[in-house]
């Protein structure tokens, strides 16, 4: 059985499932008011590779990730641009999915929009008021955190500490009973979007969305709630607080990915905004960020720089080159290697260890080929394909060079056959200037990106 670090328990525990063979996962999705940044990129790639690995292991995964399409940031952006909130959210959501396609992240099974769930949220808030766990002020409805058993579970602070400091990114209400109390519902300022509710028109707070959507789509006691480390507190704490106050069984496990650090100095100027996910995935091989993330532990911080991205690209080139050398491979993967891989990755999703094993197979496969051991090489090739598939890491055997580049490569092959090496070198330089490297393999030349 897989073992995972649980943020609530602060230790690695068996990943017990509600229903045998099935996993239900809720990932807090984006608030759509700006293009996705590299922090989003890490979060989606960690959980995309996690989902892929579980499916590869034979589990049936239900993966829900929401879209927050009503929020203070959206209203602020709409006001700045002088457009409607719908325009902001439609444009940003479009950019989000385009970026997800670019980095090859599988679509969630469901991606509910907060605005489709307002009725359920109103119902949830009413039940909290009925249970005396919430109160109405002049600017909204708040949850009383002192009414919640075990508040502070994820923050790992006592209620006393939280009541002292606490706080909410969204609102600072002067009528709040405690600093840690948070808004479930906000009354609108003139011109702000609002929905009807028994205690007054307004809009839901961010923390209320995910409780309503996750419990509705995944049910009581779903298996795993995830997101970036920054969501642990207050967002996840406050989601859980609402569920607990109403007697619901919320997520059994909590999993959070680490931060992304960038050093602007180390990033190329041509990249412009170094936080932009689409820019990063366009500037480099779109698979490079996935590999970089796989090579790190999901809970550790990672640093993105030109050097780390170039290293990831170089590793991808080794992987692709090996796949080309061994294509087509008809051998079966070695079960002992697959089992070793599973044993490594099942230990708190150790993708770094799993990726090391993958590249060891590449090295051993190349050595076998160099030694003329084609059968052994074919098994290594099958292992590499199997392990890469577990992480949804695609091998690119043909990098889709344009026709004119292919013609040049063919001309170079002819020049070499004619022993016109000067012309062959000239063409190689021409290809290089256009960003292509020509590799001479046993069955002919192959072009790959520089
Ligand atoms: Zn959430």
Quick structural summary:
The chain has 450 residues and is of the alpha/beta class. The chain has helices at 38-56, 72-81, 85-102, 118-130, 159-164, 206-218, 232-245, 277-283, 288-294, 306-325, 335-345, 351-370, 374-390, 403-417, 421-433, and strands spanning 3-6, 11-14, 22-27, 60-65, 134-136, 140-143, 182-186, 203-204, 224-228, 253-257, 260-262, 302-304, 436-441, 444-449. Strands 4-3-9-10 form a four-stranded parallel beta sheet, sandwiched between helices.
Please estimate the helix content. Answer: 40-55%
Dominant shape: elongated
Uncertain spans: 166-171
Strand content: 5-15%
Q: Which structural class do the helices and strands define?
A: alpha/beta
Explain the overall architecture.
This protein has 450 residues and is of the alpha/beta class. The chain is built from 15 helices and 14 strands. The chain has helices spanning 38-56, 72-81, 85-102, 118-130, 159-164, 206-218, 232-245, 277-283, 288-294, 306-325, 335-345, 351-370, 374-390, 403-417, 421-433, and strands spanning 3-6, 11-14, 22-27, 60-65, 134-136, 140-143, 182-186, 203-204, 224-228, 253-257, 260-262, 302-304, 436-441, 444-449. The protein has a 4-stranded parallel sheet, with helices on both faces. Helix 7 links the parallel strand 9 and strand 10 (253-257). Helix 11 packs antiparallel against helix 12 (351-370).
């Amino acid at each position: 059985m897989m073992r995972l670090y649980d943020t609530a328990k602060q230790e690695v525990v068996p990943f017990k499932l509600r229903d045998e063979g099935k996993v239900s996962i809720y990932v807090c999705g984006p608030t759509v008011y700006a293009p996705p940044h590299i922090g989003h990129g890490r979060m989606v790639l960690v959980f995309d590779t996690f989902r892929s690995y579980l499916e590869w292991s034979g589990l049936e995964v239900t993966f829900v990730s929401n879209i927050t399409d009503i929020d203070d940031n959206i209203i602020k952006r709409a006001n700045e641009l002088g457009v409607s909130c719908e325009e902001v959210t439609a444009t940003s959501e479009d950019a989000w999915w385009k970026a997800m396609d670019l980095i090859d992240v599988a679509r969630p099974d469901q991606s509910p929009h907060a605005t489709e769930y307002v009725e359920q949220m109103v119902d949830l808030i009413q039940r909290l008021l009925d249970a005396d766990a919430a109160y109405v002020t002049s600017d909204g409805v708040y949850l009383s955190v002192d009414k919640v058993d075990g508040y502070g579970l994820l923050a790992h602070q006592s209620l006393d500490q939280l009541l002292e400091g606490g706080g909410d990114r969204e609102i600072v209400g002067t009528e709040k009973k405690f600093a840690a109390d948070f808004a479930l519902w906000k009354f609108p300022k003139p011109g702000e979007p609002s929905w009807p509710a028994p205690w007054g028109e307004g809009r839901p707070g961010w923390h209320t969305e995910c409780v309503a959507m996750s419990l509705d789509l995944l049910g009581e006691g779903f298996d795993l709630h995830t997101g970036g480390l920054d969501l642990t507190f207050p967002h996840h704490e406050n989601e859980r607080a609402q569920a607990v106050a109403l007697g619901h069984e919320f997520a059994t496990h909590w999993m959070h990915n680490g931060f992304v650090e960038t050093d602007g100095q180390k990033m190329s100027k041509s990249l412009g905004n170094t936080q932009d996910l689409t820019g990063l995935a366009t500037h480099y091989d779109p698979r490079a960020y996935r590999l970089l993330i796989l090579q790190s532990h999901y809970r550790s911080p990672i640093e993105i720089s030109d050097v780390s991205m170039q290293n990831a690209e170089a590793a991808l080139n080794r992987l692709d080159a090996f796949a080309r050398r061994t294509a087509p491979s008809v051998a079966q993967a070695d079960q002992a290697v697959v089992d070793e891989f599973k044993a490594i990755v099942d230990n708190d999703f150790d993708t770094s260890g799993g990726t090391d094993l993958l590249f060891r197979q590449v090295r051993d496969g190349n050595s076998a080929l160099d030694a003329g051991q084609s059968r052994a090489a074919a098994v290594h090739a099958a292992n590499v394909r199997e392990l890469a598939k577990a992480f949804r890491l695609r091998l690119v055997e043909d990098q889709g060079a344009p026709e004119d580049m292919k013609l040049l490569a063919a001309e170079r092959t002819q020049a070499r056959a004619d022993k016109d090496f000067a012309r062959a070198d000239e063409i190689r330089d021409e290809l290089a200037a256009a960003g292509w490297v020509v590799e001479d393999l046993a069955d002919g030349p192959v072009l790959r990106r520089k």
